[in-house]
Amino acid sequence: SKIVFIAGILILSTTSPVTGQNPFIKDQFTADPTARVFEGKMYVYPSHDVDCGTDWFCMKDYHVFSSDDLVNWTDHGVILHQNEVAWVDTNANAMWAPDAIEREGTYYFYFPAIADTNTGFRGRKIGVATSNTPYGPFSPEAEPMEGVDGIDPNTFIDEDGQAYLYWSGRGIWGSELNSNMLQIESEPERLDEHHPQSGLREGPFMFERNGTYYLTYPRVIENTEALVYATSDHPLGPFDYQGVFMDEHESGCWTNHHSIVHYEGQWYLFYHHNDYSPDFDKNRSIRVDSLFFNPDGSIQKVEPTFR
Ligand code: FUB
Questions:
Q1: What is the DSSP-derived secondary structure letter of residue 299?
Q2: Mean of pLDDT over the chain
Q3: ipTM of this model?
Q4: Quick check: CB of 202 below 6 Å from ligand 1?
């Protein structure tokens, strides 16, 4: 075994050779990483940027990647393609930031897309696909979720078994999820209403630590998206705004989008930058760095590791 350096962390590796530097997926563009620990491994569900020769996002499908050392990553291939989803407008290529969660042996994959108006749905909707493994393939439900209009779905199951769905659409929203994980069962609530209102807010990610619920999200403060957070003693708030835990990217990438996960005794922040596409920030790459808390539960700022 030998000591290697990945994303600013010294780790002991039993494999050789290893190349674990950011960005950690090097053979394709990836963005919006949701990291989850399933079956003792780290699974990362990003969105998949491709270059369609336009000046906007082009995202048609999803891959999932897994690792048990955060150094060597396995690409499990396409787990869902827009052509498989009946209600999606496939001309829009808008399979944006997804999430995945497990409940009672079923894996639920949540994804946003633009609806094809010919199917009777309209605008940005959220779909759910299911599988009995974390690496799919996932089978989509025939219709998008009812009562949810927006992007960037995120799910959370509390200790008491109650599940929640979070998403963005002119602010950050949340609702209770039915235990079937397919329908919301409470009126959507705006969660960031009393937070600073300047700049776009999107990409919510909820986690719990020591009884505190952390609502984290990207927010434009000056020029690009910083990562900010708010805390509460309940998954639907009210949330007290706490501030920035990753500064705006100094150059290059207007978006950031993240998830926070605890794995083998360490907290990690997964996020993205446009490392491999410096002139076009709609072709992004996912990264990981360690994240630390202060004794009072506040999140220490994470400095992106660029190599
Ligand atoms: O990847 C497309 C969009 O860009 C996501 O949905 C947003 O969160 C931003 O990262």
A1: B
A2: 93
A3: 0.98
A4: yes
